[in-house]
Design a protein that fits this description.
Elements lengths: L1 H15 L4 H4 L2 H8 L1 E6 L8 E3 L2 E3 L1 H17 L4 E6 L5 H6 L6 E4 L3 H6 L1 E15 L9 H4 L5 E5 L3 H9 L4 E5 L2 H9 L5 E5 H10 L6 E3 L5 E8 L6 H15 L2 H13 L13
Parallel strand pairs: 1-4, 7-8, 7-9
Antiparallel strand pairs: 2-3, 5-11, 6-9, 6-10, 6-11
Length: about 280
């Protein structure tokens, strides 16, 4: 009986124990206290993220630094960036688990909106097909929407969302990352890859064995959002929503995208005229 009573008392002590300061704090309070904004990055995904001399560059990295500067003004103290490595398969869980504060480059999905705060849209990019050599069925979604067409996509991206929506008859092959999707084409397992125009140009630059880039018509541009944790006050999400609106309206989003393209060695003049960010 005594042992049982002690066990019950221990259980009550655990249940009634106050939360740790980190667990009790909102995202805004945590950033303000620590002076650190943790920005999620996915390695080797130019022109979004890549590293030069150990430093993260790319337009999503620039957006993270720009947010930190805006928070520095709002909080009246210096906020520095810390980079948190994540992946397309874990980024939502990493946000929910408070392993990072913000990530840029998420497609909209109702289940995502319920799981985290989606802020934006920050920009929109049209989808393109990156074809294997000797594969060129046409330039419309319908021409690719065949049961015999094997389509590689990176799981959890706007690319996968578009492929499943507009190519319901095709064989969709969901891969963990861009390197795997490119290899899927090179190995002959896939005929084409659906991605955004920026990622597509980067893939062609890095992999000369790939074929052509086709802007699929009618042009479909899916919006891209930032994501942050749902907490008790939503203050960071409210701030970021206002920031993203001003960021895109001012033209800054387009500027950092084009600058990242130039830095990676992509010719901005190759962007089709119908592409709008």
């Amino acid at each position: 009986m005594r042992a049982a009573l002690q066990a019950v008392l221990c259980l009550f002590a655990v249940l009634l124990a106050p939360l740790s300061p980190a667990a009790a704090q909102t995202s805004w309070e945590q950033i303000e206290r620590s002076g650190v904004l943790r920005v999620g990055v996915i390695p080797a995904r130019p022109p979004y993220f890549w590293q030069e001399d150990g430093q993260w560059v790319g337009f999503s990295a620039v957006m993270g630094r720009d947010v930190a500067r805006a928070l520095s003004v709002a909080m009246d103290k210096e906020i520095r960036v810390e980079w948190a490595i994540t992946s397309w398969t874990s980024v939502i869980l990493d946000i929910q688990a408070n392993r990072l504060d913000v990530f840029f480059g998420l497609s909209f999905a109702e289940e995502r909106r319920r799981a985290i705060h989606l802020v934006g849209p920050m920009y929109s990019l049209p989808n393109v097909a990156i074809n294997a050599r000797n594969f060129s069925p046409g330039d419309t979604w319908d021409s690719y929407n065949q049961a015999s067409t094997r389509v590689a996509v990176v799981m959890g991206t706007t690319d996968e969302q578009a492929a499943r929506r507009f190519l319901p008859n095709a064989q969709i092959r969901s891969l963990r990352g861009m390197a795997e999707a490119v290899l899927d084409i090179q190995s002959g397992n896939a005929s084409t890859m659906i991605t955004t125009v920026l990622t597509g140009l980067g893939a062609l630059k890095e992999n000369r064995s790939l074929g052509s880039l086709t802007v699929l018509r009618p042009v479909q541009s899916l919006p891209s959002f930032g994501g942050t944790r749902r907490d008790s006050d939503g203050r960071l999400a409210t701030f970021l929503q206002g920031w993203t609106f001003a960021y895109r309206d001012s033209g800054r989003a387009r500027t950092v995208i084009l600058e990242a393209m130039n830095r990676f060695g992509l010719d901005v003049n190759t962007i089709p005229p119908e592409v709008q960010f």
